[in-house]
Amino acid sequence: MKTSELINAISEDREMPLAPGRALCLALLPGLAIAIALFSARLGLRPHFMSLLADPRFSLKLLVCYLLAALAGLFVLRLFRPGGSWRGAVLLLALPPALLGVGVIVELFVVSPADWERTMIGHNAMFCLKSIPLLGVAPLIAILVALRNGAPERPAVAGAGAGLFAGAIGAALYASHCPDDSPLFVAVWYPIAIAFLTALGAVLGARLLRW
């Protein structure tokens, strides 16, 4: 039997009571509820949130985070079953960093070189590194639970996808509170925080998603 045939046979034998999208949505509901409750209790929206949406830097920050969350969610869905076409989703994941990269280039032209370091460090770098993973823990657990409903062919990759998705959710929430809107700040500190959850998800996925 060819490897592809074996994968298909195992996939068919493995019960999946819920479709991947529905399983992910149902699992995410409590995870998101916990993350939003934690965000509301400890952080909250920035003052004058609605008026800030007119600021291109603030809007870009939100757009990048929410777009990353949406594309990471698509990536996770592609990993639910063996043989899922997930490589195209990986290419799409390059879109948010590319968009942020354009913002960084514009920022470098607008901001004086003497202020680049100050703008990059911002006001709350360490708080950012703590808050994003904290907000992403509950969604990460929820996404891993959903993935256990499927049969991921590559458990570590699926776990990393779960961590990336959870990190993007945490980043999207934190971005609504974060006082640092510079693309330079976002490009340095947000990826570090998201990478932590991605690595954690890969480790947990390798252990919990094997079948």
From TrEMBL:
Residues spanning the signal sequence: none
One Pfam entry name: NrsF
Name listed for the protein in its UniProt record: DUF1109 domain-containing protein
Domain of life from the UniProt record: Bacteria
Keyword Transmembrane helix annotated: yes
Transmembrane feature ranges: 21-39, 59-77, 89-111, 131-149, 156-176, 188-209
UniProt keyword list: Membrane, Transmembrane, Transmembrane helix
